[in-house]
Amino acid sequence: MKQFFGVDVFELDELPNEPVDIEEFTGFTVDVLNKLGVFVSNDTPKVLKQLCGVLNLSVTNPRTDNLTNKNVWAFPAQTGVGKSVALTIYAAMLGGSKMASLIVVSKVEEAKKYTETINSIRNSETYACCHYAAKNKADQHPYWVELELELENYPCAIITHKRYEELGYRNEKALDHIRKYRAFDGSLKDRELIVIDEKLSFFSNTCYAR
């Protein structure tokens, strides 16, 4: 591990191989990308291995900071390498380790698509759910759930940037509705993985990290 300007930078062989097996993840993702007609370059497998390793690291590394009490890792890969597809596959595979995730995406349509893809991979209709500001019943996707009543029952939750920001301006209880889940033993636990897909326009760094 090296440090640049106080930031840890890991080599691929230093990244953990659990909870999701890096080789298995990479092989499966490359197959999916090929089936989708996405160009897979010679460098793509390495990028996917690095992505899986960084996500594993964010789940398993116990170090925290004073601001968020969570690890924060950046993955600055170029566009067009299948990051979003890979993220849905990782979230689906994470369920095999009985761990939970929260993914924050830019648009409502992305939230719907992510949820559909993850549930398809898991062959389940109760693994992933989505939540966004729905004006009426017609706006609700079949996998859309109520924040206060249902979201904690799903191991994988997908919400929009806008909804995430709105909850950040409310209170601790509102945040708990998205960052906690009901574990297999019935206890309420923090989701092990939180991913922001594309950057958020934060107005206050402290607002979402109570």
Can you walk me through this structure?
With 210 residues, this protein is of the alpha/beta class. The chain has two domains: 85 residues, no CATH class; 111 residues. The protein is built from six helices and eight strands. The chain has a four-stranded parallel β-sheet with strand order 4-5-3-8. It has a two-stranded antiparallel ribbon with strand order 1-2. A two-stranded antiparallel ribbon has the order 6-7. A hairpin with a 5-residue loop joins β6 and β7. α1 packs across α2, α1 packs across α3 and α3 packs across α4. The two termini are 30 Å apart.
Spans of at least 5 consecutive residues whose pLDDT stays below 50 are 2-7, 65-69, 202-210
Shape: globular
Q: How much strand?
A: 5-15%
Please trace the helix and strand order, writing H or E for each element: EEHHHEHEEHHEEE
Question: What's a quick, concise take on this entry?
Answer:
With 210 residues, the protein is an alpha/beta fold.
